[in-house]
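Sequence in, structure out. Go.
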Amino acid sequence: MSRKISYIFVHCTAGPQEATPADLMAEFRSKGWKAPGYHYLITADGTVHQMLAETAVANGVKGYNSRSLHVAYTGGLHLEDNRTPAQKCAIRQLLIKLRSRYPDARILGHRDISPDRNGNGRVDAWERIKACPCFDAEVEYSDI
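Output:
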């Protein structure tokens, strides 16, 4: 099954850097989710773990999942951008690969789909539904 991918969302797990893919799968199951929240997870050492096939729909961003891929890094506890250098490199390399397969997809952070409540043309920090991924992914990856 092929899906039209319009978005590639970047997330943090909002937990400890030491979390494993198994830890996150257990968390998703405890929430009653049939699918994980991410297609890919990057752990602190920079290893990329595929959590779900790209053809499958993840539970990453409500209302956008059918047309999105989701990439997360372990970390972001206390809403802090604590990506390791290995994670930064691995995320960038993965996004380059995904963008080559889905050239029309926009790379955004989960926070970037929050509504612009004051109508000024941008989502201000106070308008964000979530802080995830704890940095401005749209700006950081604008060159991809």
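Check: The helical segments are 21-30, 85-101, 137-140. The two ends are 26 Å apart (CA to CA).
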